[in-house]
Amino acid sequence: MSAVAPPVAADLGPAATRVDEPAAPGFRQWYLIAVLMLAYTASFIDRQVLNLLVEPLKASFDLDDTRLSLLQGLAFTGGYILFSPVFGRLADVGSRRAILFMGVGIWSVATSLCGLSQSYRQLFLARFGVGAAEACLTPAAWSIIADSFPARLIPRAFSIYMMGPYIGGGLALIFGGLLLDSAAGWDLTDLPLVGTLQPWQVVFICAGLPGLLIAAMLLAVREPPRREIAAVASQDRIPMAEVWRLFRDRRDFYLNFYAGMALLVITLYAFPAWMPAMLIRQFGMAAGDVGLRYGAAVLVTGSLGVLAGPWIAGQVERRGRADALMLVPFAACFALIGISSALLIAPSPAAALAIATLASFAYSIPQALASSALQLVTPNRMRGIASAVYVFAVSVTGLGAAPTIVAVLTDYVFADPAMVGRSLALTCAGASLLSAIFLWRALRGYRRLLRIDAGQAR
To answer: Which Pfam families does the record match to this protein (predicted)?
Structure first.
């Protein structure tokens, strides 16, 4: 039985009692969220623009789906995983603003370097650099958001910040497709340095440029003082031995939370990675048309989903469920089982796009809620590590495995590129089922922590 939540839509339950809680947010706090949302948007443009370039990249470097998927997954994920714990610890002990400024600048340059690649190896290394620098964003941004807003507004702040992936993914598809089609007719032969570039290279170079402006905008962000949740207040720096002890003691939540969200992220990344290829191969749509229609669907429904998450959780809390921050993600994962399976019988591109649109809404709902839940039951000085472990988990299974699982099924099980839609459906339905199982287990651990933290706060 869960504790009864106060009837406030964005209230986070008894575990959210804070020490030295920040005052009502003003311009600086909302500017911070705006800039972080733009940074998150740029990161997804940079990582997902490649999804629309599948066919030209395969032609340029003579690749099959599996080798191409390594650029989508392994190359990016290798850097992401390697540097996540580094940035996680730095976010716990250093200036989060400085970390973000450095990271955004580096990954933007690395994205443009993808466009200058002359070989598969060079492109692989450039993608590794993008992933390594983007590893700074989650631990630094999550920590700085939690210290900038009162507890009741943290889910709303996270929901605005987490619009970034859907805006970025949508813009990558929309403008990537338009730019790809336009660049095919450009004559660059008289221009120095870029005269020999192919259209896909121009798309990469242009995708990296906005991040440099965003990095400059971060200079106006002020580093907030670190604040604690009362139930888990601690000394300035928690020793690593104590960090791992807390993980171990609370493993019924942390272990299942990480596994469940990592499996959910398989669906989040597999759909944008291979849905364009399905629409092009199975239904004969043009890349520009796919980018415009699917990109608009991702941008609108993904943004609506992540904004709707806190509202839905608030309605659930009003009905006496203090565990809404984890209950709603479980329900969304359960719905994704049926949505993903429906892709197997999509008879037309319109039907396939409708299914992908529903999926985008469903897999975006849990993101801000789960992130808020993690921050609220984690001590301040180990939030960076907790976020880095989260990044590691979702990177290995989501970023790393999702594109390759679909590609391996297409290349080696069905042995037919036109069957990519079936591979996508089976991958996402299976991942959603497993995610629902783990999140149900994490929900029970979360309820226990709410009861423990409520007792300590009193």
So the answer is: MFS_1 (PF07690)
In the block, residue with structure tokens 């989903």: 305
- Measured N-to-C along each axis, helices 27-48 and 137-146 cross at an angle, to the nearest 10 degrees, of 160
Distance separating alpha carbons of residues 265 and 44, to the nearest angstrom: 14
* pTM given for the model: 0.69
Give the DSSP letter string of 132-166.
HHHTTHHHHHHHHHHTTS-GGGHHHHHHHHTTHHH
Fold classification of 24-222+241-457 is Growth Hormone; Chain: A; (1.20.1250)
pLDDT in tens, 278-335: 999 999 988 778 888 888 888 889 889 888 988 999 899 888 888 899 999 999 999 9
N- to C-terminal Cα separation, the chain: 19
Distances (CA, A) of 323 to 246, 308, 312, 396: 21, 17, 12, 27
Stated length of the chain: 458
pLDDT in tens, 371-429: 888 877 787 667 777 877 887 787 777 767 788 899 899 999 999 989 999 999 999 99
Tens-place pLDDT, residues 28-82: 889 999 999 999 988 888 877 787 787 788 888 888 888 888 887 788 888 888 8
Domain boundaries, the chain: 24-222+241-457
Give the span between the Cα atoms of 398 and 313, in whole angstroms.
25
Interacting residues of 284 by C-beta distance below 8 A, sequence separation 6+: none
Read off the tokens for 111: 């994205």
CB 111 within 8 A of CB 46: yes
One DSSP character per residue, 369-431 reads: HHHHHHHHTS-GGGHHHHHHHHHHHHIIIIIIIHHHHHHHIIIIIS--GGGHHHHHHHHHHHH
